[in-house]
Design brief:
CATH topology of the largest domain: FAD/NAD(P)-binding domain
CATH superfamily of the largest domain: FAD/NAD(P)-binding domain
Low-confidence stretches: 388-393
Number of domains: 2
Structural class: alpha+beta
Radius of gyration: 21 Å
Distance between the termini: 54 Å
Strand content: 25-35%
Strand order of the largest sheet: 6-7-5-15-16-17-14-18
Number of helices: 10
Mean pLDDT: 91
CATH class of the largest domain: Alpha Beta
Amino acid sequence: MADCCIIGGGVIGLSLARELAGRGAAVEVVCRDPVERTASWAAAGIFPPVADGPAATALERFTAFSDRLHWQWADELRAETGIDNGLRRCGGLHVAGTRAGRERLAAARTRWLAARVRCIDCDGAAVAVAEPALAGAVARGTVSAGVILPDEAQIRPSRHLDALLASCRARGVRITTATVQGLELDGRRVGGVRTDGGTVRAERYCLAAGSWSEGLAAALGLALSTRPIRGQIVLVRLPRQLLSRIVSFGLDYLVPRPDGRLLVGATIEDVGFDDRTTAAGEDGLIDVARRLLGDVDGAVVERSWSGLRPGNRDGRPTLGPVPGWENVWVTTGHFRAGMHLSTGSAVAVADMLDGAVPAPWLDAFAPWRAMESDDESVDAYLARVETAAVSPP
């Protein structure tokens, strides 16, 4: 019997498994799909710059905590597995063209400055100097202003997941591919996880199944709101890399890879558990790339994929012990920030499992919190996206 059974084999579940195993625990991960089919693998791997301080919100503190851990983990994973997960500070350039887009960018700049994030204002000419590939977009009026964030970073999600898997296996984590059919309940404890391959038993359990966590939590009387939000991404192979930074255009983005490829993403679609890519989604993303870069000779769409990101109603992840149960914890609802928050989630939940008193700001993510808050809800987020589609940035 394992010390802990983790349900979910994405970046959240694997990160927790690695952390617990590194502390000497026997861990089993139960996952329905191979890692290549998780929302984590489908991520773009953008790490926005963060700042920590007395005025920081709980989510900002959590992000800063996770960000610091990522640099430590990247070195550890490279030493343990020989895999470089591609974490690097490449910088970011956020651009806008219309008046509404410039107003949104100005508001974002105000928030960044308040958080002491380094940022550099650019007019259209400065944007073209910073990223010459955008000169055409500036000339056409598609882009007229920008803000450079020197500390924005990126990670290669597929490599990071490969490194996590290798580290978990080296630390003795057992990874079982199976479909969870339900939980065996014994009083106020979970006694096992029923799967199509048998029952998995452990002393403690953690729900880390992303968008699928809601159904499992309901069996424990915990109401989550981790509904899936589909995100599609297109991978373009270029004759040579045109960008030196991540370029964000409202909610769309271009992520340059060192191998000359370019990620274009991402759609935000409330379509249930449908993880298929669509022609409309791919065409829309290609149009974003063309608006910013023009027609690039020799550019080839290599592939596209999608992931189902678990969005919480109040825009914050959920992690902590499940109320009323002695041996069950949950960590889910990270939405678009799962890759970035994975390290902090792993350490925070592992500390809870070890009986440590969590930092007070972690109460903002507790399973028993009231979901009503001033944070933007998924519904409001989607409504804003629809508005932006009518009047693009």
